[in-house]
C-alpha cells in the first residue's frame, strides 16, 4: 500500500507509481474553487446589500412608474404615503422582497463570477496584457470586463426584476384583484398572458443599464481603490518604498473598500438611470389604470412617450433616492465580498 507523503518528504519522480497532477487538472480545480467563492460570497454580499436598500428601491419604482399627473410629489411624500398605507408601513415598503433577494444573490454572484472570467478570457485573447490572476489589468480593460459581466447578467436579471416591479407597484385601495398579489400569482399571470418570453419584457433596458452600469461599477471601484492605495502609499515613506500597486485589493483597508464601493454605486445608478426608468414603466404598464390600449409599447416608444409627457425630469424621476441608497448598499457589497475573499485566502 502506498504511503501518504508528508509535507517534508520528497516525491521520487523515477517511481512509476507516483502520480503528479497535470497543470491542466490543477488549473481546472483552481477555477472551480474560484467559481464557488464568487457564487457564494457574491450571493451573501448581494443579499445583505438588498436588505439595506430595498425600501428605497420600492420608493424609486413607485416614483418611476406613477402615471401622469404624478401620485407623489417626491421621495419623501412617497415614503409618507407608503408608511400610512392600509397594509402597513414596513410591509408596504418590503412587499415583494423575496424575488429581489433571490435576484440580488444571482445578480451579484453573476457579476463577480463573469467579471473574473472576462478578465481571464481577455488575458488569453490579448497576450500583451499582464498575465496571471495575481496581476492587475489596465483600468480600460477592467471597464470592458465590467461591461461584459453586466451584459451576461442582464439575461438572468430581467425576469426577476419584472416580478419585483410588479410586486412593488402600489396597490389601489379600490382594487381587489391586486390585493392578493404575490410572487407566484405574478409569475402565473405573466406566463398565462405572454408565455415564457413575457418574463424578458424590458430586456433592452436591463441590457443597456447593466452593460454600461457594470462598466462604471467595476471601473469606478477599481479606479478609486487604486487611487486610494497610491495616496496611502505616498503618505508613509516605508510603505511607498515597498508597495506594488497591483496588490492594492489585497491590502486595502476597510474604509478604502467602503469609499470605493460607495463611489461605484453612485456611478452605476446615475449614468444609465433613464434606461432603468423606461424599463420599470414597461414592466408595470399593465398595472396602470392610465394605459389607453392593450398594445404593449417598445422600449424606444415608451421612452419617447415619457419624454413627451415629463421631459428629462421624468427620465430621472427617483434618481436622487436611488443614488442615495446605492452608496451604502454598494459599499457593503464590496466590503462583504472582499472581506470574505480575504478571510478565505
Written description of the protein model:
The protein has 345 residues and is mainly alpha-helical. The protein has helices spanning 23-65, 75-83, 89-93, 98-125, 139-168, 183-194, 203-235, 237-240, 248-251, 254-271, 273-284, 299-315, 319-344. α1 packs across α2 (75-83), α1 crosses α4 and α1 runs antiparallel to α13 (319-344). It starts with 22 loop residues before the first helix and ends with a helix.
Number of helices: 13
Order of helices and strands: HHHHHHHHHHHHH
**What is the count of β-strands?**
0
Alpha-carbon distance between the two ends: 34 Å
Shape, per Cα inertia axes: globular
In the predicted model, the low-confidence regions spanning at least 5 consecutive residues are 1-13, 174-179, 237-250, 289-293
Helix content: 55-70%
Estimated structural class: mainly alpha
Rg (CA only): 24 Å
Report strand %. Answer: under 5%
Kindly report the average pLDDT value: 79
Key features?
mainly alpha
Summarize the structure.
With 345 residues, the chain is mainly alpha-helical. The protein has 13 helices and no strands. The N terminus is likely disordered.
Amino acid at each position: 500500500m502506498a504511503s501518504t507523503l508528508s509535507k517534508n518528504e520528497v516525491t521520487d519522480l523515477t517511481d512509476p507509481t507516483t502520480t503528479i497532477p497535470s497543470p491542466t487538472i490543477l488549473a481546472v480545480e483552481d477555477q472551480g474553487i474560484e467559481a464557488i467563492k464568487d457564487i457564494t460570497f457574491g450571493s451573501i454580499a448581494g443579499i445583505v446589500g438588498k436588505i439595506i436598500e430595498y425600501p428605497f428601491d420600492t420608493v424609486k419604482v413607485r416614483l418611476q412608474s406613477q402615471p401622469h399627473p404624478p401620485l407623489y410629489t417626491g421621495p419623501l411624500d412617497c415614503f409618507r404615503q407608503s408608511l400610512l398605507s392600509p397594509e402597513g408601513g414596513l410591509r408596504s415598503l418590503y412587499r415583494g422582497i423575496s424575488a429581489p433577494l433571490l435576484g440580488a444573490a444571482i445578480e451579484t454572484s453573476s457579476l463577480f463570477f463573469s467579471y473574473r472570467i472576462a478578465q481571464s478570457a481577455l488575458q488569453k485573447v490579448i497576450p500583451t496584457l499582464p498575465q496571471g490572476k495575481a496581476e492587475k489589468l489596465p483600468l480600460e480593460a477592467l471597464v470592458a470586463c465590467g461591461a461584459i459581466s453586466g451584459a451576461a447578467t442582464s439575461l438572468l436579471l430581467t425576469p426577476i426584476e419584472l416580478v419585483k416591479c410588479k410586486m412593488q407597484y402600489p396597490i389601489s385601495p379600490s382594487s381587489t384583484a391586486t390585493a392578493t398579489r404575490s410572487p407566484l400569482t405574478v409569475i402565473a399571470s405573466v406566463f398565462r398572458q405572454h408565455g415564457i418570453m413575457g418574463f424578458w419584457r424590458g430586456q433592452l433596458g436591463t441590457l443597456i443599464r447593466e452593460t454600461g452600469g457594470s462598466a462604471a461599477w467595476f471601473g469606478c471601484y477599481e479606479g478609486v481603490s487604486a487611487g486610494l492605495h497610491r495616496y496611502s502609499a505616498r503618505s508613509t515613506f516605508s510603505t511607498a518604498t515597498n508597495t506594488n500597486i497591483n496588490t492594492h485589493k489585497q491590502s486595502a483597508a476597510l474604509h478604502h473598500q467602503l469609499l470605493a464601493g460607495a463611489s461605484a454605486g453612485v456611478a452605476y445608478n446615475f449614468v444609465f438611470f433613464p434606461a432603468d426608468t423606461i424599463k420599470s414603466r414597461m414592466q408595470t404598464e399593465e398595472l396602470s389604470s392610465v394605459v389607453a390600449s392593450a398594445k404593449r409599447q417598445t422600449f424606444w416608444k415608451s421612452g419617447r412617450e415619457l419624454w413627451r409627457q415629463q421631459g428629462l425630469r421624468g427620465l430621472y424621476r427617483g434618481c436622487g433616492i436611488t443614488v442615495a441608497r446605492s452608496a451604502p448598499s454598494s459599499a457593503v457589497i464590496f466590503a462583504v465580498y472582499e472581506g470574505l475573499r480575504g478571510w478565505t485566502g
